């Protein structure tokens, strides 16, 4: 959290993510190993990109260890460089906080597509074109982090693996999947 990701001329400070435990997590794309999820079983810091609802791309960072299929979905962020390009890609939303709010919007602002699947996020940028997708350095100061259930999943819906920078306006709203069972009552 707080780390940046740069893609195709835009840089975003990550403010919200969701973790997925791969072969041990029924909400994960890697719960069942398929050609689509194969990248998630490889080395850490690779980009797993998929289409959501047939129109949006979503970007995940593979976290490993190898053969587990674990990854972190990039849910939201703040555009910190390349704002004009992000606005153009996002069809000029009214407010800057909306440029990369939500996983589809974040990937769109960064220009991430299926062509970026498997990108090594720790590699040096490609020449001077700026087309590589890469993670920036760890932040000097860790922000205050909140945690709660993941958004929109119907299986393992109450697992508190959604993390966000507390109080940040770019964090997306929590929406429980209508297909998820009712939350268990507390003590």
From TrEMBL:
Keywords in alphabetical order, please.
DNA damage, DNA repair, Glycosidase, Hydrolase
CDD domains annotated for this entry?
AAG
GO molecular function term, any single one: DNA binding
Please verify whether the record's keywords include S-adenosyl-L-methionine.
no
Q: Does the keyword DNA damage apply?
A: yes
UniProt-listed Enzyme Commission number(s) = 3.2.2.-
Q: Name one Pfam family in it.
A: Pur_DNA_glyco
Which Gene Ontology biological process is one annotated for this entry? base-excision repair
**Family in the record:** Belongs to the DNA glycosylase MPG family.
Q: What is this protein called?
A: Putative 3-methyladenine DNA glycosylase
Organism (species):
Nocardioides caeni
């Amino acid at each position: 959290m707080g780390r940046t990701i740069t893609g195709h001329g835009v840089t975003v400070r990550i403010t919200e993510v969701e973790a997925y435990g791969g072969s041990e997590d029924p909400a994960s794309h890697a719960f069942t190993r398929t050609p689509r999820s194969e990248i998630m079983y490889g080395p850490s810091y690779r980009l797993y990109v998929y289409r959501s609802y047939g129109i949006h791309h979503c970007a995940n960072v593979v976290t490993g260890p190898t053969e587990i299929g674990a990854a972190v979905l990039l849910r939201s962020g703040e555009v910190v460089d390349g704002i004009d390009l992000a606005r153009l890609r996002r069809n000029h939303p009214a407010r800057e906080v909306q440029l990369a709010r939500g996983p589809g919007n974040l990937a769109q602002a960064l220009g991430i597509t299926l062509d970026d699947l498997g990108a090594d996020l720790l590699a040096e940028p490609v020449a001077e074109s700026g087309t590589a997708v890469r993670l920036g350095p760890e932040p000097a100061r860790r922000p205050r982090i909140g945690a709660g259930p993941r958004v929109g999943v119907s299986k393992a819906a109450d697992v508190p693996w959604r993390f966000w920078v507390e109080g940040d306006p770019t964090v997306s709203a929590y929406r429980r999947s209508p297909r998820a069972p009712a939350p268990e009552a507390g003590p």
